Amino acid sequence: MVLTLQIILIVTSLMLIALVLLQRSKGGGLTSLFGGGVQSSLSGSAAADRNVARYTVFVALIWGIAVVGNGLLLAAG
């Protein structure tokens, strides 16, 4: 069971990194500091941005549950 939760944790961690990097920047932040502040007309639609945000939240919830479950199982045994 611990191995399964650890695999889920690794997979969701990688997915979460990818989903965060796929999100469009809303403000200046560090992306504009390194030249990423230029807007392109090929950046995608608003529906795609909403879907990426929803997937990010969903994967983050699964990641959080896996972290808590892994901690509880390792503390118990």
Tell me what the structure shows:
The chain has 77 residues and is mainly α. Helices cover 74% and strands 0% of the residues. The protein is built from three helices and no strands. The N and C termini lie close together (11 Å). The relative contact order is 0.19.
Q: Could you outline the blueprint of secondary structure elements for this entry?
A:
Layout: H1 2-22, H2 29-33, H3 46-76
Helix pairs in contact: 1-3
Radius of gyration, whole Å: 17 Å
The outline comes out as elongated
Low-pLDDT residue intervals, each spanning 5 or more residues: none
Q: What's the total number of strands?
A: 0
Q: Round the mean pLDDT to the nearest integer and report it.
A: 84
Tell me the structural class.
mainly alpha
SSE string, helices as H and strands as E: HHH
Q: What percentage of residues falls in helices of 4 or more residues?
A: over 70%
Strand content range: under 5%
